[in-house]
TrEMBL record:
SUPFAM superfamilies: DNA/RNA polymerases
Family matches, as PANTHER family: REVERSE TRANSCRIPTASE DOMAIN-CONTAINING PROTEIN, TRANSPOSON TY3-I GAG-POL POLYPROTEIN
Transmembrane spans: none
Name listed for the protein in its UniProt record: Reverse transcriptase domain-containing protein
Domain Reverse transcriptase: from-to ranges: 36-189
Top-rank taxon: Eukaryota
Length: 190
């Protein structure tokens, strides 16, 4: 099965995409070599290839008004850890999939592949404003905890404290916030 078809089938089954027949914005879905998030396939010479599919939103992104919501600098996050004896890191899982696109805008995410033409119901990777939108959402969710006991960079959460007990209290607050907002954590990276 073509890797594009495999990915599309999974997204259809999860109701993340749906078939669409008419959109002025149709982006291609090429297959490219990639080190991470790989699909391993054998080529004609029986060699293993690392392939990844992505949607090339270049044309749509060029026409999009840019959102300049700031992303934190790693230096700032490291400065916050300075002098703290306890810290921990959490990693979000499929966070973009939690951000739904208004029905009237979903056609703008249309992509084509050998299996058909589809649009997303939630925010896909590749849209130029996706990082800013996601960072704004995470900043809003954790606003009362930011700069006091945690920093957020996209779906990477850094918590810190000067004591073990405070660190556990902060962890409890962050985990409860994740539960309250349906944020899923990636425990494989722990």
């Amino acid at each position: 099965m073509n890797p594009t078809i495999l990915d599309v089938t999974k997204l259809l089954a999860a109701w993340i995409i749906y078939p669409i027949s008419d959109s002025q914005w149709v982006s291609p879905m090429p297959v490219v070599p990639k080190k991470s998030r790989m699909i391993v396939m054998k080529n004609q010479r029986d060699e293993l290839n690392n392939l990844r599919v992505y949607i090339d939103y270049k044309r749509f992104n060029q026409a999009t008004r840019k959102d300049h919501f700031p992303l934190p600098f790693i230096d700032y996050v490291l400065e916050k850890l300075s002098g703290k004896s306890h810290y921990y890191f959490l990693d979000g899982f499929s966070g973009y999939m939690k951000i739904h696109i208004e029905p009237e805008d979903q056609h703008k995410t249309t992509f084509t592949c050998p299996f058909g033409t589809f649009a997303y119901t939630c925010m896909p990777f590749g849209l130029c404003n996706a990082p800013s939108i996601f960072q704004r959402c995470m900043t809003s969710i954790f606003s009362d905890l930011l700069q006091d006991c945690m920093e957020v960079f996209m779906d990477d959460f850094t918590m810190y404290a000067k004591s073990f007990d405070t660190c556990l209290d902060n962890l409890s607050k962050v985990l409860m916030r994740c539960i309250d907002t349906n944020l899923v954590l990636n425990f494989e990276k722990w």
